[in-house]
Amino acid sequence: MRWRPLTALALLLAAWGIGAAQAQVKAEDVPLEEWAVGVLAADWRASDGTPIEAFENARRDLTRAFGEAGFDPVNIADLSLRPRWLGGTSLVSELAFAAIASRAQSAKAGCLLYFTSHGSPEGIVLGNEGLLSPVRMDALVDEWCGERPTVVVVSACYSGVFVSALAAPNRMVMTAARPDRSSFGCSADADYPYFDACVIKSLPTADDFVHLANMTRRCVAFREQAENLMPPSEPLVHMGADVEDLFVFLNFERPAP
Fold first, then answer.
1. What's the whole-model pTM score?
2. What is the rounded average pLDDT for all residues in the chain?
3. Quick count: other Cβ atoms within 10 Å of Cβ 38?
4. E strand intervals along 96-229
């Protein structure tokens, strides 16, 4: 029986002591214009239940900023659970998740998933449907993106609880706060949640995902210190071993001036 080429390659890698988990994806193999992107504003209310604009503003301007950073707008699912009578689309989560799945089926180089909402130690608010737990989000990300390079951003209070559930060799995870801390900017007088504002502010000059994460964390810390907000939210970043180099060399691609 003849060896199939892939089988022979696998045996050769094993002989050299190089396992599949150590394989490194190259930046040229995951062009940003072929990434699936999902941006979901999963709530529209302040803590007292009154409508606010912060999450909708963030969703709108994050979608625009990611498009300007090199992601193809055709592959971006721009989603809101805000009711129609408040100017939203009245999506239920099932339809929002189906839209992300559709983008992921057609744009297969990588995944960028961004969730902005209120949060608790048990998960993030999912409109009128309760909470989206870390375990459920992990299952969704795995279903949509599998083993392709993936960036997941969770902007909410206590969003650090998602890090351990979402951590994987092929994923980078960014959260707006530690597991035991709230984040800021989810009130009626805020244009954006503070973390989202810092991502939007940092994207035009960030070189790559790692640079974006570092700029965002510094921006959040500076604003919280300036406004004397305590305790600080301390956004978290977790990097999977298989994509650490990739996300340094995978530069955002902006049009030439």
1. 0.89
2. 89
3. 28
4. 110-116, 119-120, 123-125, 131-132, 150-155, 171-175
